[in-house]
Specification:
The chain is mainly beta and 257 residues long. It has 2 domains: 105 residues, Sandwich (HSP40/DNAj peptide-binding domain); 78 residues, HSP40/DNAj peptide-binding domain (Sandwich). It contains 3 helices and 16 strands. The strands form 6 sheets. The protein has a 4-stranded mixed β-sheet with strand order 1-9-10-2. Strands 11-12-16-15 form a 4-stranded mixed β-sheet. Strand 11 and strand 12 form a beta hairpin. The two termini are 51 Å apart. It binds zinc ion. The site of zinc ion has 7 residues, from loops.
């Protein structure tokens, strides 16, 4: 049984072994597509052949009480048994390969099916894949998802942000350019006359929404690239273009802070 949580949540904690928490790093591509990963974990399990006896110190109660004589009379206080840490059991027959508590560390390979669209901080609980207690009741395995950094994509919820440089002629005339998305390449139509800073939206090219069939978008911020290395002939063309175009249309505007 496995369950998925976005964060938070209360968990039972008594009567079983401890939970194991691990981090699982995912690339944007893995998050976009969902992935089944094999991970290796080490969990404590009861060593084969280990036998436990009733703790002689507390007679299996898990706690001990002491009586002190004070000026106010007898004072009885109860505390966790120091010899069995409250379990009421102690190791009887201990296999040589096990620790003093009768447990061994066992390496296991576990398949984790990561749903598409998870985010940093989301976690998945695999019930019963944690450490065993001496009664072989296992805790849970809790897998925290960690997003790896991407070379140029930025995630904003389900949306993906990307800045794309276009050439001056493409910005003026418009065109089609091929750009990367989290799920492969896509064509982006550049409308004629686009300005630096304008944002184009590629619908449905963002991350999948969890438990949904819809996707976010990819938002593409356009930067018009000013050529810096000009051939002699290109320089001539630009100079004649400048004469042809005349002064800029809107020289001043207020900065949007
Ligand atoms: Zn005890």
């Amino acid at each position: 049984f496995e369950s998925f949580f976005g964060g938070g949540g209360q968990r039972r904690s008594r009567g079983r072994g401890s939970d194991i928490r691990i981090k699982l790093r995912l690339t944007f591509k893995e998050i976009a597509q969902g992935i089944e990963k094999k991970i290796k974990i080490k969990r404590f399990v009861v060593a084969p052949g280990a036998q436990f006896i009733t703790c002689p110190t507390c007679q299996g109660q898990g706690q001990v009480s002491t009586v002190q004589n004070t000026i106010l009379g007898h004072m009885r206080s109860t505390s966790v048994c120091p010899h069995c840490e409250g379990s009421g059991k102690r190791i009887g027959n201990r296999p040589p390969e096990s620790g003093p508590d009768g447990m061994i560390k066992k390496e296991e390979t576990i398949k984790v099916k990561v749903p598409a669209g998870v985010e940093e901080g989301n976690y998945m609980t695999l019930n019963g894949q944690g450490n065993e207690d001496i009664w072989k009741n296992p805790g849970d395995l809790i897998i925290m998802f960690v997003e790896g950094d991407h070379e140029y994509f930025v995630r904003d919820g389900e949306n993906v942000l990307l800045e794309v440089a276009v050439s001056y002629p493409t910005a003026v005339l418009g065109g089609k350019i091929e750009i990367p998305t989290v799920d492969g390449k896509a064509w982006l139509k550049i409308p004629a006359g686009i300005q630096s800073g304008q944002v184009l939206r590629l619908k449905g090219k963002g991350f999948p929404r969890l438990r949904s069939r819809s996707n976010g978008d990819q938002l593409v911020k356009i930067q018009v690239e000013t050529p810096t290395k000009l051939s002699r002939s290109a320089k001539k063309l630009i100079e004649s273009l400048e004469k042809d175009l005349g002064p800029v249309q809107k020289p001043f505007s207020k900065i949007d802070l």
